């Protein structure tokens, strides 16, 4: 087989998924906006050959599926964030930030940051958000000490993380609804302590944006496969 013929080889579902993963990374890094991402993603799942896949990521780092670099050896599936790959997210160190204050204002800790062994925050007539979905962790067990007085603090954790709530509320409260969910092997444990007076500390468990997109893409691909199956039967 000549090199000129290689771009005409049929691409597999795994090849299309590798391209989709590169696009998701580019979206998260700000290299693509949402419109560009959706346009390229549609082209990815409609592509049938390597020649059609190659241009989609040509201008992106780690541009993936090109005819010359296609491997015919199946590799083990890699784990992804949001419940998998936990050992790589327990990084040690001091953490990116150890405290936050919101007085008639607000604070956020979100995105790719390192949660320290103990994070202390104070909200007075204000609010704060501590988002751990994409965070690394300084230790296997970390503590959030939240003090909310006529204000509120929201803690967002990804699936797989164990949550323990030990805070005290007076005319306020701590959210216990995510307690009792077993943690995944290797996942961190998040202990939430503190005091709420005329305020509250909420806990939510949410998927990352990338994981939501992955699920959406998988559902879209299932619909395309069903349509293709019906066309073959007609």
Which residue ranges are poorly predicted, with pLDDT under 50 across at least 5 consecutive positions?
1-5, 63-84
Broad shape: elongated
Mean pLDDT over all positions: 83
> Largest sheet, described in full?
6 strands, parallel
N-C termini distance: 34 Å
| Beta-strand residue fraction | 25-35%
Task: Describe the model.
This protein is an alpha/beta fold and 234 residues long. Helices cover 25% and strands 27% of the residues. The chain has helices at 13-28, 34-46, 50-53, 209-233, and strands at 99-103, 106-109, 114-115, 118-124, 127-131, 136-137, 141-149, 152-157, 162-165, 168-170, 173-174, 189-197, 200-205. The strands form 3 sheets. Strands 1, 4, 7, 9, 10 and 12 form a 6-stranded parallel β-sheet that branches. Helix 1 (13-28) packs antiparallel against helix 2 (34-46). The chain is elongated and about 65 Å long. The two termini are 34 Å apart.
Short description:
This protein is an alpha/beta fold and 234 residues long.
Helices and strands in order, then pairings?
Layout: H1 13-28, H2 34-46, H3 50-53, E1 99-103, E2 106-109, E3 114-115, E4 118-124, E5 127-131, E6 136-137, E7 141-149, E8 152-157, E9 162-165, E10 168-170, E11 173-174, E12 189-197, E13 200-205, H4 209-233
Parallel strand pairs: 1-4, 2-5, 3-6, 4-7, 5-8, 7-12, 8-13, 9-12, 10-12, 11-13
List keywords for this structure.
5-stranded parallel beta sheet, 4 helices, 25% helix, elongated
